[in-house]
Design goal:
The protein is mainly α. The protein has 4 helices and no strands. Helix 1 runs antiparallel to helix 2 and helix 1 packs antiparallel against helix 4.
């Protein structure tokens, strides 16, 4: 079982991969769409990859609330 910190690091790595930036450049207050250019196809890739790597299921209503990097990190740590 992964710790919350491990899950957050894995999520950061996935975010970095999807948006094409180093994980070190990502900050909690960055907006996924406005700052990281995550469009619909990238959002789907993000969700699917998070689900696979973390062995979780992210319902659509939860996914719709993920707007910033910190939202993703808080979600996977819960």
């Amino acid at each position: 079982m992964m710790s919350a910190m491990d899950r957050q690091q894995a999520a950061l790595d996935v975010l970095a991969e999807v948006c094409g930036r180093p994980a070190e450049e990502l900050s909690p207050d960055q907006d996924l769409v406005a700052d990281l250019d995550i469009d619909s196809p990238k959002a789907l890739q993000l969700l699917v990859t998070l689900e696979e790597k973390l062995d979780i299921e992210i319902p659509d209503e939860d996914a719709a609330r993920l707007e910033k990097v910190k939202d993703v990190l808080e979600y996977v740590a819960a």
